[in-house]
Amino acid sequence: MVDKERKRKEKNAYMTLEACFIMPITVILTAFLLILTFYLYTVCFLNQAAYIAAFRASLTDGAGYEREAKAEEELEKLLAEALIRLPETQKEIEASSFRVTVTLKTEWPLPGLAVLPADLGSLQIEASKEALVRDAPAFIRGMRKLARIGEGG
Q1: Which tens digit of pLDDT belongs to each residue from 3-18?
Q2: What is the dihedral of CA 52, 55, 59, 61, to 10 degrees?
């Protein structure tokens, strides 16, 4: 009788010891996956916002400064819709008669790493996208003119 009770207590002790090792590992892995998910969301969101702003600005008629203003306006709208707020986002917008380039830079703080040196406490994220300015009607007219010239007309 004493032998059975002793084995049961040893079995409970082993289960407690195993749980003592398994639970912290499970919690750490879950936290790591959550942090990775938030980081990937931020990278994808910034890339998408940069491209959408550049593309919409490239559709604007007018000079480069009008395209820059349009890209800035679109960026403000898109960044306001972010699910995860970023501390500071640096924006660089370049517009010419041929292309619009939007570059976003931000520093993403890593949760729980405030105890480490400052260099390891955050990640630098940079998203740079470019959209070409296209005038579809003028392009089609030009191609038709070239086709007529090729036909000898």
Answers
A1: 667 666 666 666 776 7
A2: 100
DSSP-assigned beta bridge partners for residue 129: 102
Query: pLDDT (tens digit, 9 = 90+) per residue, 68-124?
Result: 999 999 999 998 888 877 778 899 999 988 889 999 999 887 766 655 555 566 788
Region of 62 please: left (phi>0), alpha (psi -120 to 50) or beta. left
Residue count of the chain, please give it: 153
Count of CB atoms situated within 10 Å of the CB of 33? 10
Look up residue 62 and give its DSSP letter. Answer: S
Query: In what side-by-side order are the strands of the sheet with 122-132?
Result: 89-95, 99-109, 122-132
